[in-house]
Specification:
heterodimer; A: Aspartate Aminotransferase, domain 2; 2 domains; seven-stranded mixed beta sheet; B: four-stranded mixed beta sheet; 39% helix
């Protein structure tokens, strides 16, 4: 029998028109024009598969989890724990004990700040973040700094919007106890070399949290290949519901951490003298969780994998390249964030037109973009601008929509000249 | 939704060439205004003579609506006493927020702001300078916020 060479098939191209039919909201008009939704980095739209999974759960299976012997409670518990297994597979965690459901990325980071960092850190210890972090990966560490007396250090970025890696590496030392970095910058689109940063931090004995809110929708994330200790992300940027997110933590670290919030479900026994805490992951899930949110999140992961994560990433990269070329040749446009490796986020300014005015004019043309500081005020300060306009792309965006964006920007320039 | 209603010529003109723009030193009072939503920031300086605003200037970075509104406001309140300024503020507030408000003739160029009410997300841009003026008149140097 002949031996054939292993053939690695390229990612199949996305059939965008078919994808768009999965998202009912894309059929609507805004201000009399077909909606062009370029704000997926703020919150992605949801496909019918997600909406129907949530509806099916709500209409057929809802009860509280882990509490009843009746059929519905068992069905809800199975669905909830099934969602946890779905998440485990999606990020390739070792065990479902490492998957904590949260309200979102922000809550995941706060959990690590309060339950991991706060009890361990003190004066002389250092937390290292970078200059492009979202407020959610800055403020929780400032709170820990103020609570413990540790030091918060910030690795600088350069004019391209990339972390200055040599400076980041030089700032690591045995005093560094925790490193908290974005996987992808929400304001600039920069993809950070997280694997290298994690390895370097580990070499100094530091624990690493990755804020994956903007990375999970645009790439395959394998927490074991990355080797990170904590990884936080949100459902609603991954075509899932709002109010649900995930914190991945390495089991031995989670095991050693005290609970964060106390209440039902996170306990085994309670008396007025003493309480014993539940096992992982429930130790960190006090109170009735967002059950339908986890169902929707699991359905979103199924959906994303049915399209193919590589196919989505390739499609978005094509859109990003096309949009970048379109905007670069427009007079007065300055692209903010020109890293070599970017995800589907395009931040820019237009000379003589404040981003807030741009947002209004584009909206009148049916084009939804984000304008403002993108919860990354230090990034705006670094570039000495009050705000940017940001177009971000998802699996459902098209080349024709990039053309609509460019035409709307022409219109904005017209209004202001 | 008609953009021409929002970006009228008077607004575009005052955005491009803001009147009374720059620092004032010395001044009797100044106040800082900040709209965290869009990053607009402005500092307002006033010099009083008795109960009247003898001179007023502003500086800062903002969108067209906030810049033009501040510029128009400085022109409108210069020489006015506190009571008149407060009354004007009340009428501007109605103009920006009430759908059926009809700009009366006494508003002058400020009437150009009436288009803002069709764009609820932008009302704060137009009112930031007025909040800030109130703060300055109270001789408070604490930053005010529209949030």
């Amino acid at each position: 029998m002949a031996v054939t060479a292993t053939h690695v098939a390229p990612a199949p191209a996305l059939d965008v028109e078919r994808v768009r039919r999965d998202f009912p909201i894309l059929e609507r008009t805004v201000n009399g024009r077909p909606l062009v939704y370029l704000d997926s980095a703020a919150s992605a739209q949801r496909p019918l598969a997600v909406l129907r999974a949530v509806e099916r759960y709500e209409t057929h299976c809802h009860a509280n989890v882990h509490r009843g012997v009746h059929a519905l409670s068992q069905a809800a518990t199975d669905a909830y724990e099934g969602a946890r297994e779905r998440v485990r597979r999606f990020i390739n965690a070792k065990s479902t004990r490492e998957i904590i459901f949260t309200r979102g990325t922000t809550e995941g980071i706060n959990l690590v700040a309060q339950a991991y960092a706060r009890p361990r850190l003190g004066p002389g210890d250092e937390i290292l973040i970078t200059g492009l972090e979202h407020h959610a990966n800055i403020v929780p560490w400032q709170m820990v700094r103020d609570q413990t007396g540790c030091t918060l250090k910030v690795a600088p970025i350069d004019r391209r919007g990339e972390v200055e890696l040599d400076k980041f590496l030089a700032m690591l030392s045995p005093r560094t106890r925790l490193v908290a970095i974005a996987h992808v910058s929400n304001a600039l689109g920069t993809v950070l070399p997280v694997k290298r940063m994690i390895d370097a931090a580990h070499a100094q004995g530091a624990v690493v949290l990755v804020d994956g809110a903007q990375a999970v929708p645009h790439s395959s994330v394998d927490v074991r290949a990355l080797g990170c200790d904590f990884y936080a992300f949100s459902g609603h940027k991954l075509y899932g519901p709002t109010g649900i997110g995930v914190l991945y933590g390495r089991e031995e670290l989670l095991e050693a951490m005290p609970p964060w919030q106390g209440g039902g479900d996170m306990i085994l026994t309670v008396s007025f003298e003493k309480t014993t805490y539940n096992e992982l992951p429930w130790k960190f899930e006090a109170g009735t969780p967002n059950i339908s949110g986890t169902i929707g999140l699991a359905a979103a992961m199924d959906y994303v994998e049915s399209l193919g994560r590589e196919a989505i990433a390739a499609h978005e990269q094509r859109l990003l390249e096309h949009a970048t070329q379109e905007l670069e040749r427009m007079p007065g446009i300055e692209i903010i964030g020109t890293a070599h490796h970017k995800a589907a986020v395009l931040s820019f300014t237009l000379a003589g037109v404040h981003p807030h005015d741009l947002g209004t004019i584009l909206d009148a043309e049916g084009v939804a973009i984000r304008t403002g500081h993108h919860c990354a005020m230090p990034v705006m300060t670094f570039f000495d601008i009050p705000a940017t306009a940001r177009a971000s792309f998802g699996c459902y965006n098209t080349e024709a929509e990039v053309t609509r964006l460019a035409a709307a920007l022409d219109k904005a320039r017209e209004v202001f000249t | 939704m008609d953009l021409k209603e929002l970006y009228r010529d008077v607004i575009l003109d005052h955005n491009k060439r803001p009147r009374n723009f720059g620092r004032m030193e010395p001044c009797d009072a100044h106040a800082e205004g900040h709209n965290p939503l869009c990053g607009d920031r402005l500092t307002l300086y006033v010099r009083m003579k008795d109960d009247r605003i003898e001179d007023i200037r502003f500086e800062g970075k903002g969108c067209a609506i906030s810049t033009a509104s501040a510029s128009l406001m400085t022109e409108a309140v210069k020489g006015k006493d506190r009571r008149t300024v407060n009354e004007l503020y009340g009428r501007i507030h109605s103009l920006l927020t009430q759908q059926d408000a009809v700009p009366d003739a006494s508003l002058g160029k400020l009437a150009a702001l009436s288009g803002v009410r069709e764009f609820p997300a932008r009302v704060k841009c137009a009112s930031l300078c007025w909040h800030t003026l109130s703060a300055a008149l109270e001789r408070s140097a604490a930053p005010v916020s529209t949030e």
